[in-house]
């Protein structure tokens, strides 16, 4: 009887541990389906930096299941001639190529884009940035490195 009880308890504990270890934990940061991102646009983040008084913010949500990035960019103090997300091969402080052009430049700029795997990797690694260009500063007047929102 004692031996049977001990055997059943061992089997129960092993089963319980297996079931709970396989269950998704949606509240863990890397287990959620969505990840929040933020950025603050200003001239000091441009490469090279500038003294623009223009400012802005970027907020976004990335859905890891659908691979879709939804974003909103608000800005003041400039009239952009172009704007987009760039992928920086070297991370913050390094310029890179355009991956998502904005279809409208009126604040707030809103949009959605489905990312390719290399773009998703760059987003998660902090290698994307938002850039707004103007006639006065065609290489970029204000920029924001896109970072995970602090929990």
UniProtKB/TrEMBL annotation:
The UniProt entry, under Pfam families, shows: CHRD
Q: Name the SMART domains on file.
A: CHRD
Give the matching InterPro entries: CHRD
Every CHRD domain range: 33-151
Write out the coiled-coil annotation as residue ranges: none
Q: Which residues are the signal sequence here?
A: 1-16
Q: Which UniProt keywords apply?
A: Signal
- Protein name, please? CHRD domain-containing protein
Q: Which organism is it from?
A: Larkinella terrae
Origin organism lineage: Bacteria, Pseudomonadati, Bacteroidota, Cytophagia, Cytophagales
């Amino acid at each position: 009887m004692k031996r049977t009880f001990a055997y059943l308890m061992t089997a129960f504990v092993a089963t319980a541990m297996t079931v709970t270890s396989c269950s998704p934990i949606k509240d863990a940061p890397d287990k959620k389906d969505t990840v929040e991102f933020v950025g603050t646009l200003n001239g000091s983040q441009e490469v090279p930096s500038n003294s623009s008084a223009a400012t802005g913010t970027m907020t976004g949500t990335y859905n890891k299941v659908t691979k879709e990035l939804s974003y909103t960019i608000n800005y003041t103090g400039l009239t952009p001639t172009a704007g987009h997300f760039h992928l920086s091969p070297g991370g913050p402080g390094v310029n890179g190529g355009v991956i998502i052009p904005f279809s409208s430049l009126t604040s707030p700029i809103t949009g959605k884009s489905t990312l390719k795997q290399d773009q998703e990797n760059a987003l998660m690694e902090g290698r994307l940035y938002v850039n707004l260009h103007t006639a006065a500063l065609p290489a970029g007047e204000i920029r924001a490195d896109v970072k995970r929102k602090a929990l």
